[in-house]
Specification:
This protein has helices at about 15-25, 45, 60, 75-90, 185-195, 220-225, 230-255, 260-275, 275-280, 300-305, 390-410, 440-445, 465-475, and strands at about 1-10, 30-35, 95-100, 100-110, 115-120, 130-140, 165, 180-185, 200-205, 215, 295, 310-315, 315-320, 325, 330-335, 335-340, 355, 360, 370, 375, 380, 415-420, 480-485. The protein is an alpha/beta fold. It folds into two domains: about 1-145 and about 345-485, FAD/NAD(P)-binding domain (3-Layer(bba) Sandwich), CATH 3.50.50.60; about 155-225 and about 255-340, FAD/NAD(P)-binding domain. Strands 1, 2, 3, 4, 5, 6, 17, 18 and 21 form a nine-stranded mixed beta sheet that branches. A five-stranded parallel beta sheet has the order 7-16-8-9-12. Helix 5 links the parallel strand 8 (about 180-185) and strand 9. Helix 5 (about 185-195) packs across helix 10 (about 300-305), helix 7 (about 230-255) crosses helix 8 (about 260-275) and helix 11 packs parallel to helix 13. The two termini are about 25 Å apart.
Length: about 500
């Protein structure tokens, strides 16, 4: 049975970043990364649909320690994947990765101060030997790689063409001169539409209700200008802070002046599509950032619609026919290909089942500690980014914090580190793990996740400024995080 000080689960954007921080801040720790797939990159290696890109700028989605040097700030998926792989190779992280290894379960023993890991092979290879570790750092993301949210539609078995979810994109799909319907109006749908429009006969985005869509330049002129005069890292840091502050200001405006922000966003769309189109297809019933706002580079979605090669239909599906989709309004959408961009299924800790001293962990009974640990679950940190800002901002904070905890445990000779409710925390009001966010993919599975409390440190703030104070600058020993040096 092999033993490591730390096991990182996941070799995507978060896992590679966590490994970097661990090497830099805890150089004596032994560690490995378990990756269920056969490649580095996580989401950016999994998704292969046309136009795949980030809807966060790369000066905030990029790592704090590695400047983004490409011209485009809103980057395509292959460029982001190259960036993650480059980070792994520059820092000799790849040799620590065990590919095709999935964490199915983990059992904590307080007596031994160890996690024993149940690891399965995902490549039909030999059964991996069990692992033990002192600390688990979960970087598995938040959604299922195996089962996207894919509702069934009445009559879909009669459809004569391909019907699939973008997560299961067929490698050999030929959509040239075909009629395509994309079901959905989220980030994936608004990416696919302009990417496919030129080669299709026509592509339609079919939505039940509109989503807020905002255009931004793909190129950050300030970032590219600064790099001409300043060292790359300094230019990157300045741009990063510029964008963090703008993101935070914009989100705060949606909270205090939602009607004003709504008018601003819709006015920008009207410049491209006119009032009638915007009123029907781009005016949501909710306030901005009650659900995630879709960012499009250089107005590509609007340009595709203006060209006549793409369109939006707001209606509901009655049933699927041989040749397309029958809508509740009575309209028929002809289609050769149907793409169900219908969202994700959330997955806690990649689906791994946890036990603590023989008792299964039921996450809805736990409280989240600083957005990253679970009450009464020792020596475990999970990485979960922001829904209203770039994921990596919090992933970096989480990795830094984990290293602080590990180093403090060494200083104290502690074998176990556990968040526990204090006397003043008991009976506090509970709140959902993510609150004030009505997106369906969150609401469907929120009951499976831990609770928030009503005060620090039992918060999942979704606020980078608050998190910096609570995570980076607050003392580790706050009365809630307990360090145990003795055997139970």
């Amino acid at each position: 049975m092999r033993h490591f000080d730390v096991v990182i689960v996941g070799a995507g954007l978060s896992g590679i970043g966590a490994a970097y921080h661990l090497q830099q801040r805890c150089p004596t720790k032994t560690f490995t990364l378990l990756e269920s797939r056969d490649a580095v990159g996580g989401t950016w290696d999994l998704y292969r649909y046309p136009g795949i890109r980030s809807d966060s700028d790369m000066h905030t989605l990029g790592y704090s320690f590695k400047p983004w040097l490409a011209e485009k700030a809103i980057a395509d998926g292959p460029s982001i994947l190259d960036y993650v792989n480059e980070t792994a190779d520059e820092n000799d992280i790849r040799r620590h990765i065990q590919f095709n290894r999935q964490l199915d379960g983990a059992a904590w023993s307080s007596q031994d101060a160890l996690w024993t890991l149940d690891v399965a092979a995902t490549d039909d290879g030999a059964t991996p030997e069990p692992l033990t570790c002192n600390f688990l750092l979960m970087c598995t993301g938040y959604y299922s790689y195996d089962e996207p949210h894919r509702p069934s539609f009445p009559g879909e078995e009669s459809f004569e063409g391909p019907l699939f979810h973008p997560q299961d994109w067929p490698e050999d799909l030929d959509y040239r001169d075909k009629r395509v319907v994309v079901i959905g109006s989220g980030a994936t749908a608004v990416t696919i539409l302009p990417a496919m429009a030129e080669q299709t006969a026509h592509i339609t985005m079919l939505q039940r209700s509109p989503t807020y869509v905002a255009s931004a330049p793909a190129v950050d002129a300030v970032a590219n200008g600064l790099r001409k005069f300043l060292p790359a890292m300094l230019a990157y840091r300045i741009t990063r802070w510029k964008n963090i502050l703008f993101q935070r200001w914009m989100y705060q405006r949606t909270r205090v002046a939602p009607d004003q922000v709504k008018r601003f966003l819709l006015r920008r769309v009207r410049k491209h599509l006119g009032p009638d189109y915007v009123e029907k297809h781009f005016t949501p019933s909710y306030n901005p950032w009650d659900q995630r706002l879709c960012l499009i580079p250089d107005a590509d979605l609007f340009k595709a619609i203006q060209s006549g090669k793409a369109s939006v239909v707001t209606d509901r599906i009655d049933h699927i026919t041989k040749k397309g989709i029958q809508l509740e309004s009575g309209e028929q959408l002809d289609a050769d290909i149907i793409i169900a961009a219908t969202g994700l299924n959330l997955k806690q800790l990649g689906g791994a089942q946890l036990q603590v001293d023989g008792e299964p962990v039921h996450f809805p009974d736990t409280f989240i500690y600083k957005g990253m640990m679970y009450s009464d679950v020792p020596n475990l940190v999970q990485t979960f980014g922001y829904i209203n800002a770039s994921w990596t901002l919090r992933a970096d904070l989480t990795a830094e914090y984990t290293c602080r905890v590990l180093n403090r445990m060494d200083e104290l000779g502690a074998r176990r580190c556990t968040p526990r409710l204090r006397d003043e925390d008991r009976g506090m009001k509970t709140r959902p793990w993510i609150e004030d966010f009505s997106a369906g993919y969150m609401q469907r599975d929120m009951h499976r996740f831990p609770k928030q409390g009503e005060h620090e440190p039992w918060l999942n703030t979704q606020n980078y400024s608050s998190d910096k104070k609570m995570i980076r600058h607050a003392p580790l020993e706050d009365g809630a995080l307990t360090f145990d040096t003795k055997r139970p």
